[in-house]
Design brief:
Elements (H helix, E strand, L loop, with lengths): L1 E5 L6 H12 L3 E5 L4 E3 L8 E3 L2 E2 L5 E4 L6 H13 L3 E2 L3 H8 L1 H10 L7 E4 L5 H7 L5 E5 L8 E4 L2 H13 L4 E5 L7 E8 L2 E9 L14 E4 L4 H14 L3 E9 L2 E8 L5 H7 L3 H12 L12
Parallel strand pairs: 1-2, 1-6, 6-7
Antiparallel strand pairs: 3-4, 4-5, 8-11, 9-10, 9-11, 12-13, 12-15, 13-14, 15-16
Helix pairs in contact: 1-9, 2-3
The protein binds adenosine-5'-diphosphate and magnesium ion (MG).
The site of magnesium ion (MG) has 3 residues, from loops.
């Protein structure tokens, strides 16, 4: 097969590993810089040009679309889809998972566990919003944040009020969430491929920190997950319509709760912590599933 990896750089660990795995399994494979693709919109025969040349026939594309280029990146994936190329994660699913509010609404509709969460842009009723998630302590999250930036633990009601007032003052969307204290600063990343969790790691926050993000000094460990965690992670990926997903779960007293579903999950931490060749599994999945024109919009909403 000819497998294209859509990525900003071939130097990124995940990109490099996917490329290696494709070659090892006997495929042709190349990395294409998403932002350097240009496309014609107006003909019956959609195509993509790259660095002045039309692309040779492609069988499958692996989108690795960073959050900062979601808009253009999903358009490029959509163009591949219009050309009948199999995209292992589809453009609509990527766009859906990038919208945190939409994602959480969809997960809620499917009865998938998540922390009690409120959304707001600006409200006069800050006390009401605090009560909605069961009072302090609570977590306030900037919707546009990643890698733990913009995720604030408010231990008292007073602190929560001030943080919300500050965010409302700068015109951003926020999420207010019950604080899952019993998780002890840990969460579990499940790497889902198709209908299986192929690898899992537990991330533990640094001492004195509640955010387990590796960028915030968290550490990664191999994790054994329960059947309920497995089911939740797979259901969350399926709800988003993603074949490949990194589902972050937090362990609460009343079972696993979904924090986020990531459509371009990194391979470095999880391959290291689990010892599993995740890149190889991704390529194997593509071998089993890629067909011309197989891509279609799946999932809900
Ligand atoms: P980001 O998109 O920035 O990674 P997350 O929602 O994943 O934001 O939050 C970052 C980290 O903060 C999580 O990995 C988790 O360790 C911790 N965290 C987030 N929400 C909660 C919560 N409701 N209760 C307890 N810990 C939380
Ligand atoms: Mg996170």
């Amino acid at each position: 097969m000819n497998i294209v990896i859509l990525s900003r750089s071939r130097k990124l660990y995940s990109t490099r590993r996917l490329l290696e795995a494709a070659h090892t399994r006997g495929h042709e494979s190349s990395v294409i810089d998403t932002l350097r693709c240009y496309m014609n919109m107006a003909t019956a025969k959609p195509s993509i040009r790259y660095r002045g040349e039309p692309l040779p026939p492609v069988d499958a594309v692996i989108p690795r679309i960073g959050a900062s280029i979601t808009f253009y990146g999903t358009a490029v994936v959509r163009q591949f889809e219009m050309m009948g190329v199999y995209a292992v994660n589809e453009s609509v699913a990527i766009a859906r998972s990038r919208d945190k509010l939409r994602s959480m609404q969809l997960l809620a509709r499917r009865d998938i566990g998540m922390p009690v969460t409120g959304f707001a842009h600006t409200t006069d009723d800050i006390p009401g919003l605090i009560d909605m998630v069961g009072g302090a302590p609570l977590v306030v999250k900037l919707l546009e944040g990643t890698q733990g930036v913009g995720v604030v633990l408010c231990e008292t009601r007073k602190a929560a009020e001030s943080v919300m007032e500050a965010f409302f003052g700068i015109d951003v969307n926020i999420m207010v969430q019950e604080y899952i204290e019993e998780a002890g600063g840990a969460d579990v990343r499940c790497f889902v491929i198709g209908d299986k969790v192929v690898a899992a790691m537990r991330r533990q926050a640094a001492p004195g920190e509640f955010r387990s993000n590796l960028h915030r000094g968290g550490s990664a460990h191999a994790a054994k997950i329960s059947p309920a965690e497995r089911r939740t992670a797979v259901a969350a990926a399926k709800t988003m319509g993603l074949n490949i997903a990194g589902v972050d779960l937090i362990r609460s007293n009343h079972g696993p709760l979904v924090l986020e579903v990531n459509s371009s999950p990194g391979l470095e931490g999880i391959e290291e912590a689990s010892g599993i060749d995740v890149a190889d599994r991704v390529i194997e999945f593509i071998e089993r599933n890629a067909r011309q024109g197989r891509t279609r919009t799946r999932g809900t909403g």
